[in-house]
Every structure is written in structure tokens, then in C-alpha cells.
Q: What sequence folds into this?
């Protein structure tokens, strides 16, 4: 035997190691890093990360604190049985076994969440409500993030997950979550994978592509050794410098692959004779030299992947002395190695694969059956290994082809996966069970459940795992197996689940009808406790669709049912829904009281998700009620109360704070709370974030950013049934198009939004906002029609303006101070559409916005008021209003409004002082609809800037009288009577 197979010192990889160490240094500075380390099988990925771990163990931080903490886990090739979280579990279990002090620093809620995969962590035995829902696995991930973040506070954390090409669905989902969620934590995430395993449809490929798009990701492809590096490794293994012929033979045959080279040497094939066709053949040469007992042990480990001595004794049936002798030989020949958990495994996964492939089919099946039987006998062992045991049993029976046992164990593994919130794996396992079902005699006795229950579990796993379409199909299959007359409670429970599924597929009306049908079928006793959650969900859907009055009716019934049933989760959900509906209908104090009660319950139950939801809803309702200061203060309080590790809740709360700060006029805070970047978000949170940025971008005047944000979520909004997104998107799109003078597209945007949200809705908040923009668009269209002398267009615009004003009036009757402020603004816009002077109306609108402390619409109203005063010849009043508008716009940072006010002042020759701000580029002139000559356009440009006839003549080298003639002709062509009116037309139509 050889003393060793591998080099005792690290060879080469200088650049790759430096890249890894640089990632660690960045993490120490609070910049999380992500490393994707790929390479062919046997090229040395594990050796590289092992060297990094060794170096980090010898290093401390610059301030003398402990060096980085390395958590290292391995992927498991599980075959047909799915083992959720395999790499993550192997990385975290040492912390539990050592009872790392950071575990006690976690919040009780996070400990309880992590206890689902690490039993024993929550010593208090506190039971969390693990009711299946799409966010349950996410809460587990957030708890793991809290653990990693807490660990990184005392020392940087290097989380190494190896063999990600074998990673299960849940591990891939966690990696995607962690990579998106890291902000300033001192964490390095290193993922290794076999590049030669990644076929075109490999499930790791999409994840790698997603991770590479993140700014912090760096990809390292590990190449084979060159001749010099291979020679250095051989010299250390052989104890002497290899001669040139040996080096050349080994380099040619191994192509620089370190593991292949080691196996050629270990097998006595130093490059002479017939070369093995592959690494597999080289390894089998070594296996054949082992004794019979050692080979038998190796075959068993190849099937079991890892196994302890009792398992090997049971599976091989070798006597104790023979087993130990065989194990010693396999260890001495470095075929097998032992781990910290006293289990035996192959030195390299490639070697196990070669051994497994060499087994005869019958031999392989017998070993699988033996392992499955042994593992089933161990039922009731340590809870920590229960998940792994159930997955392994299912895998062994499936590989052996024992269909009855495979069905029974696969269902058990699916249930175990559900318990740890691994719904992707549960979906795969239940699908496998459905395939086995018709092949097994006395199937219900074997399975322990009936076909309907299996279909229901499969549907739930698919739905929560992300494939709702498949979930709907399975639920309909389950319903087709039931008689609603004989089993009404069970049928109704499935209908209730189907209604949520249909809602998630954006078929709102059908979802509500299905839920109502389920409610009607439920018997009075309701043994499954379906009624409280069904009523709560029905009330929620009615609110989201803008049916506030019906929400109050259903919500009160749902609240009573939830309280009677003691269902705190349903109670909190209903309190949120009922509170928002009451505020929206004008019963503000009652609604606020309900929302504050939801905050209290969430705090009592240590439910971070519900707490953030309640705070966000309360802030939003204060905003709806026009209580701007309270809205902002509530959002700030909610942000402080949301644990920083709950990234999803915190992201939502941060965006709520951004919205409230924007309304209150603190646009710096609004900008700060727009992080994280859109690439780190999905779904509704992404939609919320992009619409918030579009709103802020329009406020400051960055139309390109606003357009990009709106375009990025247009498809999401198009499939939404919720007025909160439809209305906001339509209002912002309409404002953007109007700002760009694309008035036809602006009209289409707002009218599409109104068409989608107005039918039978009580949501006057969204109707009011969209209608206000729509009225502004029609006022612009009417003004342009007058400028262009197009009476038909003017009449059409005015008719539409009146319609939108009537809608604003109806909204104000049912709404609060915000809707009344929009009505006051609408009254002024309607006067503008009619071509009337509206200085008093604009002053009233400004006062309404000022009363509820909304500085942005206040500044815009003052600008329009100044414009109206100019038209009426009230210069002193115009100066006052223009100065207020300018001051407000500058304090906000609304550069577009600053430019508008200054342009008005230049046209009307108003003296506003000389406030400092960057010069704004003028937009390009539009096409001339008035038949102006080039010379007249030159005169018009100077006229619009306020030049006198003498100044025009001097600038264009003409007599003052000639300039006067040009000005008179221009006024006639424009159809205006004064220079100020001419300048206004130039400004509106971008003629100069």
C-alpha cells in the first residue's frame, strides 16, 4: 500500500486561491461575496476549498478577533429519493452539536422555524403554526439568514456548499434566496459543482445564470494541472522528482486531472502498458486487488453512499472480525475514508459511482433492499436523522424495484418533506407515488391513505412549490373522486383550496364563486376548521377587488368565527382586512383600532410577517385618511419593529416607508428606502418597488427611469386583478405620457386603468388618483386644441374632462380629505380645460393639499396658480404663487417643476430672485403646425425668452420696426393677442 495518494502540500491554483481570499476580505469589510467554483470531475475543487479552509483557520481578523467561521456542507446524490436541504444541513449540524452560543441569541421564532430541519434546536418545544402556505419555506429561509447574520457579527462566515450539481430543489431555492438577500452581512457563499455534469437541461443551470446576474458574483472555472503543477504534485507523492518520461506519460493519459493521475499511480499504472479507458477503469483496477471481504464492504458502501459499522454489519452479514478486517483494508488502501460522524464513505464520489455501476443488477437490488430494511428497523431513532432516513428508505426501495414498499416509503418521505417545508421535493415524491398507485395491489392498505388524500397532498405541494397550474389539475382530479352528497365537508375543504389556487392564477371572479360554493357546502360542525380561514380569505379577496362594503359584512362574520375557533392566524388576517375596509369607507377610528389590534396580536405571537403586514396596512390607511405625519411615523415604527433578518417583510416595510416619505416630502428618505435593487426581488414586491421608483423618478423629472420601471412591470400589472396596482400603474403611465406630450397614449393609459378597476368597486382612492391624472390630460388636450384651432378636438377633450370631474366628485363624496383635495384640483383643471381663468380654484386646491401636508401636489398647484394669475394680469399674486411653487419644488428636488416655474417666470417677466440649481436642457422643438417661416421661428425663440423688439432686432441684425412686423405676424399665426400668450404656446408645444 502507499502511504498516501495525494500531495501533502497544496499545488498551484495561486490565482484561484487569491480570488477566494479576496472574496473573504470583501466580506470582512461588509460586502457579501458569492463565488461559483466549477470544474470537471476530479480536477481539485474540494482540495481548493479545503486549502482555503486551512488558511482561514490559521488567520485572525486585523483587530485580533477570531478568524472567519467556515461552514461546509456537501450535496448528496440521492437518486430517486429526495433529501431536502442536504448541503445546508451538513453545514449547520456542527453548530447544533457544539451548541454554538449564537443559537441562543436567535429570536424564539427563528429557533422554532429552524427546528423544523434541526430538531433539538428549540428546546422549549414551542409549537409554531406551520400551516402550509407559499411563505412557510420562506420563513424558514429567513430564520437561516438570521442565524448566518448573527454568526457573522462575531466573525465573517464562509458558507461552502459542495457538489451543487446534486443539490435538491430546496437547497437551490435557499441559495437563490440567500444570494438575493445578502446586503451588508459579512458572508461569503461558495458553491462548487461539476461543470462536466451540467447538461443542457440540468436544474442547476438556471440558478447559476440567475446568480451570475448579481453584481457580487464571481465565477471561477478550475482547469487541470499543467505539466509543471503535475510534476510538483508527483514529486511530493513519490518522494522524488519524477523522470521526464513518467511525467509525460501521466500527463498525456490524465490530461492534467489530479484525481485521474493519483488513481493511475495507486493502481500501479505509472503510464506503461494499456491505458485505462477512463478514471472508472483505473479505480476498478485497484478494487480488484482488495480481498473479498474488503470488496464486499466497498460494494455495500457504494449502494449506501455512506454507512456506519452497524449498518454494514447488517447489510453484508459479515462476522464482526471479518467486517473490521475488510474495513481496515479499504481504509488503508484509501478506497474508503471515515467522517466526523463515524460513517464510512468513498474517498471521492467518482470512485463510488464507478463501484456502483460495476455491480450486477441482482446484487445491486439485494443491497438496496437490505439497506432499506435496516433503515426501517431504525425507525424511532434520533429525530435529527429522521428526514434523511425516510428519504433514503424511499430511494433504496425505488432502486430495488419493490413497488409496494416503494409506494409506502415514498409517501412517508413526501410527508417528511412537507414537515420540513420542502414542498418542491414533496411534489416530486407525491408524483412518484401517483405513478406507482395503479401498479400496487391492495393499494390503500399499503399506502395508508386513499387516492383523494394523495392527490390533495400532491396538489398542495405543487401549489406551494410554484406550479399552481399542476396543482389545479390535481385538485380537480381529487374532486372528481368524491361524492359531494356523501362527503360534503371533505368536498368543501378541497373547493376552498381550489378557490385560492384559481385566485393565484388570476381568475378572481371564478375564485370567489368557488369559495362561496365551498362555504355553502360546509356542514355546521366543520370538523376540519375550514370555515374561519375560508371566511377570512373571502373577505380579503373582496377587499383586494375593491368591494369594501361586502368586505365589512363578510369580515365581521369571519372575525367572529376565527375568535370562536381560537385561530389567531385567521384572526390577525381578518383584523387587517376589516380594519382597512373600515378606513376606506370613512370609519377611520374604528378601522385604525382594528389594525392596532392586529399589531398587538402579531407582537404577542412573535409573528414577524404578520407584524410587518399590520404596520404596513396601518401606515397605508393613515395615508388614505390624509393623516400624512401619522402615516410616516407608523412606517418608521414598523421598520424598527421588523427583524432585519426577515428580508421579505423588511423589503415590503421599507417600500411602505419609501411611499410615506415621498408623500410627506422627504424624498431623500424615499430614495434610501427603495433598495434593494430590482434584481433581488420577485412578484408583488418587485411590482411595488418598481412603481415606487417610477413615482419618485417622475417627481424628480427623470422620465427615462420612470419609463424603464413601468415597462419592467407592465406584464405583471396586466395580469393583476387588484386596483392598488392597476390604478397606480395607470396613473403613473398617464402622467409620464402627458409629460412627454404623448397625449393620445396618456389618455389610453388612464382610461384602460379606469375600465379595469371601476366596475362595481368601492375603491375610490385609486379611482380618484387615476381620474385626477385623466382630467389633467384632457385639460392639456383641450389647451392644445385651442392653440391649434381644432374645435372638434377641444369639444371632445372638454366632454371627457367633465366626465372625469364627475367621477372625482363621486369619489370625494365617499372618500376623505385626499379625495376632496383631488376634487379641488380637478375643479381647477376643468376650468383650464374650458379656457377660463382659474386662479381662485388653484389657490383652493393648494390650500387643500397644504391642509393634509402633501408638499408635492401643493407645489404643482401653486405653479398652476401662478400661471393663472399671469393670464389674468395679476402679476403681484403670480410672483407670490410662483415663489412658493419654486421653493417647494427645490426643497423636494422636483427638477422638472423647477424648470416649469422658471420658464413661466421668464415668459411673464416675473422677478423671483436667483435661486441656485443646475441649468436644464431645453427639449427639442416640435414640428411647426402654424406655417411659421424659419426667420419667424428665430424671432419666436427670442420672443419666448422675453426679448423686446429692439433686442430681437439687435440679435438677428434687423431693424426694430422689422422685428415688430415679424412679431405681429407671429401673433396672428398663433391666434393669440399678447407676447405672453405666444410664449405660453411656444412652451406648451415646444416650438422654440
A:
Amino acid at each position: 500500500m502507499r502511504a498516501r495518494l495525494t500531495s501533502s502540500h497544496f499545488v498551484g491554483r495561486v490565482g484561484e486561491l487569491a480570488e477566494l481570499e479576496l472574496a473573504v476580505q470583501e466580506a470582512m469589510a461588509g460586502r457579501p461575496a458569492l463565488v461559483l467554483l466549477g470544474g470537471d470531475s476530479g480536477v481539485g475543487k474540494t482540495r481548493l476549498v479545503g486549502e482555503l479552509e486551512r488558511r482561514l483557520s490559521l488567520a485572525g481578523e486585523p483587530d485580533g478577533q477570531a478568524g472567519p467561521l467556515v461552514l461546509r456542507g456537501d450535496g448528496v446524490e440521492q437518486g430517486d429519493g429526495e433529501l431536502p436541504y442536504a448541503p445546508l444541513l451538513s453545514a449547520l449540524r456542527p453548530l447544533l452539536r457544539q451548541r454554538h452560543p449564537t443559537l441562543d441569541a436567535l429570536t424564539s421564532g427563528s429557533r422554532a422555524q429552524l427546528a423544523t430541519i434541526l430538531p433539538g434546536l428549540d428546546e422549549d418545544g414551542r409549537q409554531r403554526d406551520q400551516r402550509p402556505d407559499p411563505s412557510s419555506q420562506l420563513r424558514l429561509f429567513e430564520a437561516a439568514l438570521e442565524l448566518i447574520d448573527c454568526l457573522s457579527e462575531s466573525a465573517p462566515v464562509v458558507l461552502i456548499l459542495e457538489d451543487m450539481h446534486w443539490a435538491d430543489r430546496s437547497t437551490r431555492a435557499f441559495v437563490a434566496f440567500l444570494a438575493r438577500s445578502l446586503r451588508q452581512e459579512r458572508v461569503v457563499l461558495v458553491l462548487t459543482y461539476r461543470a462536466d455534469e451540467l447538461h443542457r437541461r440540468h436544474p442547476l443551470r438556471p440558478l447559476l445564470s440567475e446568480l451570475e446576474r448579481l453584481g457580487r458574483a464571481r465565477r471561477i472555472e478550475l482547469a487541470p494541472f499543467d505539466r509543471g503543477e503535475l510534476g510538483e504534485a508527483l514529486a511530493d507523492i513519490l518522494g522524488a522528482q519524477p523522470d521526464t518520461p513518467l511525467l509525460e506519460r501521466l500527463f498525456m493519459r490524465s490530461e492534467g486531472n489530479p484525481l485521474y493521475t493519483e488513481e493511475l499511480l495507486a493502481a500501479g499504472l505509472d503510464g506503461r502498458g494499456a491505458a485505462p479507458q477512463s478514471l472508472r477503469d483505473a479505480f476498478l483496477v485497484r478494487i480488484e486487488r482488495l480481498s473479498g471481504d474488503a470488496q464486499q464492504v466497498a460494494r455495500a458502501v457504494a449502494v449506501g453512499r455512506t454507512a456506519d459499522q452497524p449498518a454494514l454489519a447488517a447489510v453484508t452479514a459479515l462476522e464482526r472480525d471479518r467486517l473490521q478486517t475488510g474495513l481496515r483494508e479499504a481504509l488503508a488502501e484509501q478506497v474508503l475514508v471515515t467522517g466526523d460522524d463515524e460513517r464510512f464513505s468513498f474517498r471521492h464520489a467518482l470512485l463510488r459511482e464507478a463501484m456502483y455501476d460495476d455491480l450486477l443488477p441482482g446484487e445491486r437490488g439485494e443491497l438496496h433492499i437490505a439497506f432499506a430494511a435496516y433503515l426501517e428497523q431504525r425507525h424511532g431513532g434520533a429525530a435529527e436523522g429522521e428526514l434523511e432516513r425516510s428519504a433514503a428508505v424511499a430511494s433504496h426501495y425505488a432502486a430495488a424495484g419493490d413497488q409496494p414498499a416503494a409506494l409506502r416509503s415514498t409517501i412517508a418521505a413526501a410527508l417528511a418533506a412537507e414537515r420540513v417545508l420542502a414542498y418542491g421535493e414533496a411534489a416530486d415524491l407525491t408524483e412518484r407515488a401517483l405513478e406507482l398507485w395503479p401498479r400496487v395491489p391492495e393499494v390503500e392498505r399499503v399506502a395508508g391513505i386513499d387516492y383523494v388524500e394523495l392527490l390533495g397532498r400532491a396538489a398542495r405541494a405543487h401549489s406551494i412549490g410554484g406550479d399552481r397550474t399542476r396543482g389545479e389539475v390535481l385538485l380537480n382530479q381529487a374532486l372528481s373522486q368524491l361524492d359531494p352528497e356523501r362527503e360534503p365537508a371533505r368536498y368543501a375543504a378541497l373547493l376552498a383550496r381550489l378557490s385560492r389556487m384559481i385566485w393565484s392564477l388570476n381568475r378572481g371572479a371564478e375564485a370567489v364563486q368557488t369559495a362561496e360554493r365551498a362555504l355553502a357546502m360546509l356542514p355546521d360542525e366543520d370538523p376540519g376548521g375550514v370555515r374561519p380561514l375560508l371566511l377570512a380569505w373571502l373577505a380579503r379577496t373582496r377587499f383586494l377587488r375593491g368591494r369594501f362594503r361586502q368586505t365589512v359584512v363578510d369580515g365581521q362574520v369571519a372575525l367572529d368565527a376565527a375568535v370562536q375557533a381560537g385561530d389567531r392566524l385567521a384572526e390577525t388576517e381578518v383584523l387587517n382586512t376589516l380594519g382597512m375596509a373600515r378606513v376606506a369607507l370613512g370609519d377611520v377610528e374604528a378601522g385604525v383600532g382594528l389594525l392596532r389590534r392586529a399589531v398587538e396580536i402579531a407582537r404577542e405571537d412573535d409573528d414577524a410577517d404578520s407584524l410587518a403586514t399590520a404596520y404596513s396596512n396601518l401606515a397605508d390607511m393613515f395615508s388614505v385618511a390624509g393623516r400624512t405625519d401619522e402615516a410616516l411615523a407608523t412606517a418608521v415604527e414598523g421598520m424598527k419593529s421588523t427583524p432585519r433578518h426577515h428580508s421579505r417583510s423588511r423589503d415590503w416595510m421599507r417600500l411602505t416607508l419609501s411611499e410615506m416619505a415621498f408623500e410627506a416630502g422627504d424624498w431623500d428618505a424615499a430614495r434610501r428606502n427603495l433598495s434593494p435593487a430590482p434584481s433581488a426581488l420577485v412578484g408583488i414586491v418587485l411590482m411595488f418597488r418598481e412603481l415606487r421608483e417610477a413615482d419618485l423618478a417622475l417627481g424628480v423629472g427623470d422620465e427615462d427611469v420612470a419609463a424603464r420601471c413601468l415597462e419592467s412591470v407592465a406584464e405583471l400589472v396586466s395580469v393583476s386583478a387588484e386596483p392598488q396596482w392597476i390604478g397606480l400603474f395607470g396613473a403613473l403611465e398617464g402622467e409620464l405620457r402627458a409629460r412627454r406630450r404623448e397625449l393620445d397614449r396618456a389618455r389610453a393609459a388612464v382610461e384602460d386603468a379606469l375600465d379595469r378597476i371601476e366596475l362595481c368597486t368601492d375603491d375610490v382612492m385609486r379611482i380618484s388618483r387615476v381620474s385626477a391624472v385623466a382630467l389633467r390630460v384632457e385639460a392639456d388636450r383641450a389647451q392644445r386644441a385651442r392653440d391649434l384651432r381644432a374645435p372638434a378636438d377641444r369639444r371632445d377633450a372638454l366632454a371627457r374632462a367633465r366626465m372625469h370631474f364627475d367621477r372625482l366628485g363621486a369619489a370625494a363624496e365617499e372618500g376623505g380629505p385626499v379625495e376632496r383635495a383631488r376634487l379641488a384640483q380637478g375643479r381647477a383643471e376643468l376650468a383650464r380645460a374650458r379656457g377660463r381663468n382659474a386662479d381662485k380654484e388653484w389657490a383652493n386646491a393648494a390650500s387643500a393639499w397644504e391642509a393634509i401636508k402633501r408638499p408635492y401636489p401643493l407645489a404643482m398647484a401653486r405653479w398652476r396658480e401662478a400661471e393663472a394669475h399671469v393670464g389674468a394680469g395679476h402679476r403681484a399674486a403670480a410672483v407670490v404663487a410662483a415663489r412658493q411653487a419654486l421653493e417647494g419644488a427645490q426643497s423636494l428636488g422636483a427638477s422638472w417643476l423647477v424648470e416649469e416655474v422658471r420658464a413661466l417666470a421668464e415668459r411673464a417677466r416675473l422677478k423671483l430672485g436667483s435661486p441656485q440649481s443646475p441649468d436644464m436642457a431645453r427639449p427639442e422643438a416640435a414640428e411647426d403646425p402654424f406655417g411659421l417661416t424659419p426667420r419667424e421661428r428665430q424671432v419666436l425663440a427670442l420672443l419666448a425668452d422675453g426679448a423686446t423688439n429692439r433686442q430681437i432686432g439687435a440679435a438677428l441684425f434687423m431693424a426694430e420696426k422689422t422685428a415688430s412686423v415679424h412679431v405681429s405676424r407671429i401673433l396672428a399665426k398663433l391666434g393669440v393677442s399678447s407676447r405672453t400668450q405666444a410664449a405660453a404656446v411656444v412652451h406648451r408645444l415646444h416650438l422654440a
Remarks:
- Confidence is low (pLDDT under 50) at residues 271-275, 380-384, 915-926.
- The chain has 48 helices and seven strands.
- The first strand starts at residue 33 and ends at 39.
